[in-house]
Amino acid sequence: MPKIKLVIGYDGTDFHGFARQPGLRTIQGVLEEHLARIHNHPVEVFGSGRTDAGVHARAQVVHFERDVGPPADKYVYLLRRSLPRDIVPILAEEVPDDFHARFSVRTKTYRYTIQRAAIPDVFSHRYTWHEPLSMNVQRMQEAAYDLLGEHDFTSFCASTTHVEDKVRTLFAVDVAQRGTYLDIICSGNGFLQYMVRIIVGTLVDLGEGRLDRQIRQILAARDRSLAGRTAPARGLCLWQVDYEGNEVHNG
Amino acid sequence: MPKIKLVIGYDGTDFHGFARQPGLRTIQGVLEEHLARIHNHPVEVFGSGRTDAGVHARAQVVHFERDVGPPADKYVYLLRRSLPRDIVPILAEEVPDDFHARFSVRTKTYRYTIQRAAIPDVFSHRYTWHEPLSMNVQRMQEAAYDLLGEHDFTSFCASTTHVEDKVRTLFAVDVAQRGTYLDIICSGNGFLQYMVRIIVGTLVDLGEGRLDRQIRQILAARDRSLAGRTAPARGLCLWQVDYEGNEVHNG
């Protein structure tokens, strides 16, 4: 059965996260509903991973299988006509049988955006965390460096996470100023629940001087309570998902 | 009684417009509720004018009177702590008795933003009209020029408008490209209901070749049905309100 890979962007504000949940508006639920309409039968969508309620995506990747249906390159047009304005189809293409939106992922990149202006821009409030307190950005950058590489990230994930293996590899944690905004960009081979938001909350707590603990010490303890706050969902955006043999998937 | 002038920005998406309406979430309603809490008694707010449901403001101006209460410059801090994130207080100052947020207005400026990229930016969907069809921007600029000056704008306002005098003066109607966005900026001494949105819809219809009529002919007819579409509310933003003796009121 032909397999279609679809890249979508979404404004997570009005969704209860990515994963289908009965009676709730979710990305997977809305997408499956519109794909079922196009094919006249149910279509199951597989995402590169879940995003939590309120989290956005510039370029989430999903796949689905279908026997008959329009050519791959028609999906963007058909879905754009049909989807609500807060989900935008960006790219669709046919992929080999062994492609899987989740299991073939090589690198995921998230961007978290903090708004630091004293007077917040009201048009960014859904997409940023307004935290105007003074921060030692250099200290945050140094702490970010200590997160790189392969670690057990138990201290940086929701304490309710049931995944057994909490070892992940971070390829980049960049803290970058952009005008009155501060972007924290994290790339890695996988992320645990709330991992980026706890990394961001911890870096901010360190930068503001609320927390006085070395990242190495927090990692080694494997104890969520030693890390900082969980930054709010609204500042987080799934930026890019990369697959083997494929450098950049989205514009 | 001291009179306080307050400049606010708001994201109009989740409001039923500016004007207080029983049981509905409106800018005036929310603002009065929070000011009443600060003063421990009801406070009536007067705006520079209403904005319709879904319309935004970068810098709306309101005033209110109060006998006792905090110094003017404390309102921004107090309101920011208390208001929801989609209304942002920007500036507060004491003004002379004869100041009136509505009757003292000299110039109002609105910005309307059209998103023209084939693939819309999902994070702009609440603040723009996505209209990717090809447009003759030069033709739109020429038509905009014919709107300048004093005219009876009956053809460019909601046909249900009950105001008797529909003569207004436009000081500027600028059609400006900004990357893949097109801004239409209108300044004037006053605006009728839907006036900017009908101006924008008409300019777009002319630019796309859907409408083939001179602006002078539309103005002269004083007939709403000769003008173009009413552009959607979400692309419209009250940009600036200027008063006598005061050039710029907002950052």
TrEMBL record, chains A, B:
<feature type="binding site">
    <location>
        <position position="110"/>
    </location>
    <ligand>
        <name>substrate</name>
    </ligand>
</feature>
<dbReference type="InterPro" id="IPR020103">
    <property type="entry name" value="PsdUridine_synth_cat_dom_sf"/>
</dbReference>
<comment type="similarity">
    <text>Belongs to the tRNA pseudouridine synthase TruA family.</text>
</comment>
<keyword id="KW-0413">Isomerase</keyword>
<comment type="function">
    <text>Formation of pseudouridine at positions 38, 39 and 40 in the anticodon stem and loop of transfer RNAs.</text>
</comment>
<comment type="subunit">
    <text>Homodimer.</text>
</comment>
<dbReference type="InterPro" id="IPR020097">
    <property type="entry name" value="PsdUridine_synth_TruA_a/b_dom"/>
</dbReference>
<dbReference type="GO" id="GO:0160147">
    <property type="term" value="F:tRNA pseudouridine(38-40) synthase activity"/>
</dbReference>
<feature type="domain" description="Pseudouridine synthase I TruA alpha/beta">
    <location>
        <begin position="9"/>
        <end position="103"/>
    </location>
</feature>
<dbReference type="Pfam" id="PF01416">
    <property type="entry name" value="PseudoU_synth_1"/>
</dbReference>
<dbReference type="InterPro" id="IPR001406">
    <property type="entry name" value="PsdUridine_synth_TruA"/>
</dbReference>
<dbReference type="GO" id="GO:0031119">
    <property type="term" value="P:tRNA pseudouridine synthesis"/>
</dbReference>
<keyword id="KW-0819">tRNA processing</keyword>
<dbReference type="InterPro" id="IPR020095">
    <property type="entry name" value="PsdUridine_synth_TruA_C"/>
</dbReference>
<protein>
    <recommendedName>
        <fullName>tRNA pseudouridine synthase A</fullName>
        <ecNumber>5.4.99.12</ecNumber>
    </recommendedName>
</protein>
<feature type="active site" description="Nucleophile">
    <location>
        <position position="52"/>
    </location>
</feature>
<dbReference type="InterPro" id="IPR020094">
    <property type="entry name" value="TruA/RsuA/RluB/E/F_N"/>
</dbReference>
<feature type="domain" description="Pseudouridine synthase I TruA alpha/beta">
    <location>
        <begin position="143"/>
        <end position="244"/>
    </location>
</feature>
<dbReference type="GO" id="GO:0003723">
    <property type="term" value="F:RNA binding"/>
</dbReference>
